[in-house]
Amino acid sequence: MSEQGYPSGIDPTTAATEYNALNFMIRQLLSQVNTATLVQVKAVTNSGGVVAAGTVDVLPLVNQKDASGNAIPHGTVYGLPYCRMQGGANAIILDPQVGDIGIAVFANRDISAVKATKKQNNAGSARQFSMADGMYIGGVLNAIPTNYVQFVGNNINIAASGQVNVKAPAVTLGDSGAALQTLLNSTLLTWLSAHVHTSAVAGNPTSAPTLPIPATVQTTITKAE
User: Fold this and answer.
1) Which 3 state secondary structure label does DSSP give 76?
2) Which residues contact 80 (CB under 8 A, 6 or more apart)?
3) What's the CA gap between 187 and 164, in Å, rounded?
4) CA-based, 20 to 30 A from 135: which of 18, 71, 170, 211?
5) What is the DSSP-derived secondary structure letter of residue 132?
6) Is the peptide bond preceding residue 96 cis, with omega within 30 degrees of 0?
């Protein structure tokens, strides 16, 4: 009766020398170390709201394989914190979306205690280089955007398929704002200077506006409500 063997990564040269045997063991240990890989977002806790950065569930896209070369897809990795461009209370809110492809990196120690407290802490366990201790960076191999801020040479282009809303106590437009203000003032003064009021009594027009138009009626471009 023949015996059924099991495939492995060992080949006839593995045990030929001590070096080969040691090299095989090192490679086996290194295969358990996770460093970085491409992942796809399967779920995200936030959707663009003004809230703290959240987490994503991701699927590693590079399959594992067994000793016979058969593909073994990864399962979903849950609760990876994602990166946001932020300094203090100032941030660009651009949450990941389902289907995005990005980079996940993996810490060399358990980061669960730091994630829970957001403070310096001990490692949550003895695990090392685990996918459970991943962080999502994001932003590679994705489609052409339709909404964007583009920097080209000395120019900045902003495109949106919806509204562009600005909320601030004051908005300064610089030289462009001064030119726009001059144009508006000139147009407004021309219109006010040209119009006349008429009386309800036929043939009894009132006087034309007093010139110059007081400065109090001129426009000021400084505030957005």
Assistant:
1) coil
2) 55, 56, 57, 58, 104, 134, 135, 136
3) 26
4) 71
5) G
6) no
Which amino acid is it at 77? V
| 133 φ/ψ angles, rounded to the nearest 5 degrees | -110, 40
Residue 123, C-beta contacts closer than 8 angstroms, at least 6 positions apart: 109, 110, 111, 113
CA distance 46 to 35: 26
Amino acid identity for residue 211 in this structure: L
Please give the domain boundaries of the chain with CATH numbers for all domains: 18-159 (2.40.50.230), 167-197+208-225 (no CATH)
Report the C-alpha gap between 163 and 144 in whole angstroms: 20
Dihedral Cα 8, 13, 17, 20, nearest 10 deg: -60
Determine the pLDDT at residue 186. 75
* Predicted confidence (pLDDT) at residue 205 exceeds the cutoff of 70: no
Whether the pLDDT of residue 2 is over 60: the answer is no
CA pair distance 67, 24, nearest whole angstrom: 14
CA dihedral 110, 111, 114, 117 (to 10 degrees): -80
- Nearest C-alpha neighbor of 43 from the set 54, 28, 30: 54
The two three-digit tokens of residue 128, written as one number? 């090392």
How does residue 224 score in pLDDT terms, banded at 50, 70 and 90? very low
The helix/strand/coil state of 177 is helix
Cis peptide before 212 (omega within 30 of 0): yes
Chain centroid to Cα 135, Å, comes to 14
